[in-house]
Amino acid sequence: AQTVTQSQPEMSVQEAETVTLSCTYDTSESDYYLFWYKQPPSRQMILVIRQEAYKQQNATENRFSVNFQKAAKSFSLKISDSQLGDAAMYFCAYSLIQGAQKLVFGQGTRLTINP
Amino acid sequence: GAVVSQHPSRVICKSGTSVKIECRSLDFQATTMFWYRQFPKQSLMLMATSNEGSKATYEQGVEKDKFLINHASLTLSTLTVTSAHPEDSSFYICSASTADQETQYFGPGTRLLVL
User: Fold this and answer.
1) Which of A32, B4, B24, B42 has the smallest number of CB atoms closer than 10 Å to its CB?
2) Which residues in chain B touch residue A33, judged by CB atoms under 8 angstroms apart?
3) How far from the centroid of its chain's Cα atoms is residue B99's Cα?
4) What is the rounded distance in angstroms from the CA atom of residue B63 to the CA atom of residue B61?
5) Closest Cα partner for A5 from A23, A29, A28?
6) Quick check: A99 pLDDT over 70?
């Protein structure tokens, strides 16, 4: 079974600084997707970034980028120029490409932005 | 991006009654919808996968007779919590996959409180 592990229950960063959230996963599959979702206090899950395992290039979305290390099964999220609105729970998630594409989530990391 | 709505956003009911939660994809057709449950300060746990026109697939440990799922159209899935008890109190979130099934978009969630 696939598992996703986020080893940092909480992280904090100064506004405008850079922070990296860690995620590791376990799978025997070669083709899959990895995601970072953000859950602010409203509890609405918001897609931050997606990475296809078959792509070697790391995904980027504006201030958000990932460091995808397939061999190490590591998928970290870097947030640059942190803003107060970035404060939220961040969940790393995995899904297969084939089949039902159901998501397996990590435990989450609560990110606090200090003004 | 794709929009998913849920109704109601919050519901309080008496123990023993049934509650129906609707999940709608507003601007796309979703052949697959997913239902998650989230306890306070915890991650999302998949309850079931709902496919339009067929029976839902439930995760291990989820009682299908208690959590009835109907996916009647390409834009609507419903979750009915039957004979609700206080331990069913939780935050229920649905998601829907776009046609390419590469990404899930989440509804805003429904907070259920059973008294």
Assistant:
1) B42
2) 102-103
3) 19
4) 6
5) A23
6) no
Which is it for the CA torsion A54, B28, B38, A87, positive or negative?
positive
Q: How far is CA A33 from CA A86, B47, B49, B102, in A?
A: 23, 20, 18, 8
Tens digit of each residue's pLDDT (9 = 90 or more) over B2-46: 899 999 999 999 999 999 999 999 988 888 899 999 998 899 999
Supply the pLDDT for residue A109: 98
Q: Is B43–A33 a contact, with Cβ atoms under 8 angstroms apart?
A: no
With an 8 Å Cβ cutoff, the interface of chain A facing chain B consists of 33, 35, 37, 42-47, 50, 91, 95, 97, 100-108
Predicted confidence at residue B41, as pLDDT, reads 86
Whether omega for the bond prior to residue A41 falls within 30 degrees of 0, making it cis, is no
C-beta atoms surrounding A30 within 10 Å: 9
